[in-house]
Amino acid sequence: MGIIARMLKRGKPSSPADARQKRGLQGEEEAARHLKKSGLKILVRRYRCRFGEIDLVAREGETLVFVEVKTRRSADFGDPSLAVTPEKQKHISRVALDYLRRLNHPEIPVRFDIVEVIPSDSRFECNHLRNAFPLSEPYLY
Hints:
A hairpin with a 2-residue loop joins strand 4 and strand 5. This protein has one domain: Trna Endonuclease, Chain: A, domain 1 (3-Layer(aba) Sandwich). The protein has about 140 residues and is of the alpha+beta class. A 5-stranded mixed beta sheet has the order 1-2-3-4-5, with helices on both faces. It contains 3 helices and 5 strands; from the N terminus they run ααβββαββ.
């Protein structure tokens, strides 16, 4: 049982961190739905390894796509993709290389996308940024 489920079972009020986590999970669901409608096939959700996590791993044609989802309540403080800093890109690159290692380093093209998700009334607005950043240095593939 997850921490949120345990807290709700005990009847304790939710914290702001719980609300952020819930919003993030909703954003990932909406991003996956948006990507599917755009023709991508979702392979893995929340891929985890010792280096961290990638929100979504998808495939578009012959290209393997690693997707970072950024969900915000609004765009008042800038585009959500601005939170994907060079340090975060390096982190995502390292996790992606672990994923590729587990697949025995297939000879296929890879790319890194970002999906920005912002709630709008009773639905979500998704903005898909293809090829948002390259594999970070010093990593090679």
